[in-house]
Structures are given as C-alpha cells and as structure tokens.
Specification:
With 317 residues, the protein is an alpha/beta fold. It contains twelve helices and nine strands. Strand 2, helix 2 (50-60) and strand 3 (64-68) form a beta-alpha-beta unit.
Length: 317
C-alpha cells in the first residue's frame, strides 16, 4: 500500500515495557479495514524487548513510526508526545495491551464524518483477561450523548465509571484545545470532562474495543497513590502532592475555558460544589498527609543538622 504522508487518522501508542502484549495490539491496529492511518509508537525507554518488536513492525509497514525516549519521561508526557507527533484530522490513543476489532476505525470515522456535533466516537468495551478471554463488558451509564453540556460534564466527573472513551477516536482540533493528559492520576477523567464540554460522545453499540486486565498494568502495579503519581511524572517522586486537590483543580480548569452557556456553566458549578462536599474527607486527608510529611522531613533535617554539629565538635577536640 502506498504511504500517505498525511493520513486522516493518527493512532498514538505510548508504551513502557510492553513486550508481553504489544504484538497483539499492533496486529489488531494494522488489520483495520480503514487503512488511511499512521501508528505512532513512543517507547518510554523500555528495558524489555519492546524496541526490537516495534522496530521489526516499522521495518515492514511504513504506517508504523517508532520513537524512543532517552529516559523515562512518565506516562503523561509520553501520552501527550504521541499526539504532538500526530498529523491526522482524527486521533486515537491506543494502549499496548488492548485490542480493537478490524472495523473499529471505519465505524468511528463514519460517525464523525456524518455528525459534526460529535467530538469523540467510541465503541462498546469488552473486558478481556491476560489470555484474551472475554470476562466482562463495560455497560454505558453516562449521558455523554446528551445535547446538554451540563449532563455530559456531570456524568463524566462521577467516579463510578471507566475511562474507556479515552481510547475512542477524537477530532484532533478539539483535543488540541485541551491541556491533554495531566501529570497526575485521574487526569484522563479530567480530560474527558473537558472534551464533554466541547461536544457529544457517540458510542457504537457493538463490542469492538477489548480492554485487557492484567497484574502488571499501572493501576495494579502502582497501588500507592504516591507511586502512581511518580508513574505519571517521575519528577514528582518523593514530592509532597495533593492528589484529590489536583483533580478538583482540573475540573474547575475545564469549566473555566468551556464554550458553554451561562446556564450550563452555573449548573456545572453547582454540581462541582456538591462534588467538593462529597470528596471533602479525601481533600482533608491530602492536607493531613502533606502536613505529616512536612513534619517528618523537618525532623529529619533537624537530626542531620544536629549530627553535623556533633561531628564538628568531635573533630575540634
């Protein structure tokens, strides 16, 4: 197939040590019935065989573009990088461990071409295990197809749903108006909330997206919120963070620049007040944890100063 230097669809895959499932993920993308796409893979300095696998694909299929970071820049920056490298009118994030059916792209593009009020098109998600067996289905509960921005925003910021829509096909020009993935956990939910304020989401009722659940994925491997934050941004390792406050700020920031009516904005602000009240224990916990860390670190510094003084005292004798 002739290589199109400006494909209509860009698919971005950010990966770190994905050798276990990445072949299956890439194969499912290259098997799409809609062929006018590029697959951009950004390797976050993997230490397994990811580089060898992807370079082999890039050598035999010109749609595959491989990039490798010199060091691990964190999940968020790597996710954003593949979008910054994209050239297509439409964009889709892909995970190294998920799989899509051959008609996934074709059906999503058909919807986006037909309905310009839709900013993101996704397909019903099925859950698969480590061996690819279907073990569940993500039944939609959100009003993201509502014509009212307040309905879409209010539903997206609820915690009782997955963020599978992030792996749908989105209009690149709309995604460019957001702050993309933030360098903190749950920033995918904040991104979806912002996109929901720009337009409707459409879900294809067929199960064409297969989300894998396995022990080595980030949410399982980084159960501690501080470890998970460092996974998103290595620069935050051992730093004092405020995870729930960061999410709150993200939601308020999404509303600040949203192209919605004053009625929708007022309704969203009202719901955010309720959200803040509901999450007050977690917000207080962030402050308490930060206070304890400051106290412990100040004591450690004090002990070091005391030890240094004693050392100088001994050397003077």
């Amino acid at each position: 197939m002739a290589h199109n230097t400006h494909p209509r669809v860009s698919i971005g895959m950010a990966v770190f040590n994905g050798g276990n499932y990445i072949r299956e993920a890439i194969d499912s993308i290259l098997a799409q019935t809609y062929e006018d796409f590029e697959l951009i893979i950004s390797d976050n300095a993997s230490t397994d065989n990811t580089e060898d696998i992807v370079r082999a694909y890039a050598a035999r299929d010109r749609r595959v573009r491989y990039y490798r970071n010199e060091h691990n820049v964190g999940l968020a920056k790597n996710y954003n990088l593949v979008f910054q490298l994209a050239t297509g009118e439409y964009f889709k994030w892909a995970a190294h461990d998920d799989v899509v059916a051959p008609e996934f792209l074709a059906k999503c593009i058909e919807v986006l071409d037909r309905d310009h009020d839709v900013v993101l098109c996704q397909a019903r998600a099925k859950i698969i295990d480590e061996d690819g067996r279907v073990i569940g289905e993500d039944v939609p509960t959100l009003r993201t197809d509502s014509p009212r921005p307040r309905d879409r925003f209010i539903d997206v910021i609820q915690v009782s749903h997955s963020c599978h829509p992030q792996y749908g096909v989105v209009r690149a020009r709309t995604l460019a108006l957001t702050s993309l993935m933030g360098n903190y956990p749950a920033s995918d939910r904040v991104l979806l909330a912002r996109l929901a304020l720009f337009g409707r989401f459409h879900e294809i009722p067929e199960g064409l997206f297969f989300a894998r659940r396995h022990a080595t994925q980030s949410l399982q491997a980084h159960a501690n919120r501080y470890a998970l934050t460092a996974f998103y941004d290595p620069a935050k390792r051992d730093k004092i963070i405020f995870p729930k406050w960061r999410i709150l700020a993200g939601f308020w920031g999404a509303l600040a620049g949203a192209p919605v009516s004053w009625v929708d904005r007022a309704c969203c602000h009202g719901y955010m007040a309720k959200w803040t009240g509901h999450n007050l224990p977690a917000l207080v916990s962030d402050l308490t944890t930060a206070g304890k860390m400051v106290l412990l670190r100040s004591r450690a510094i004090k002990d070091l100063v005391t030890a240094a003084k004693r050392s100088r005292s001994w050397s003077d004798q």
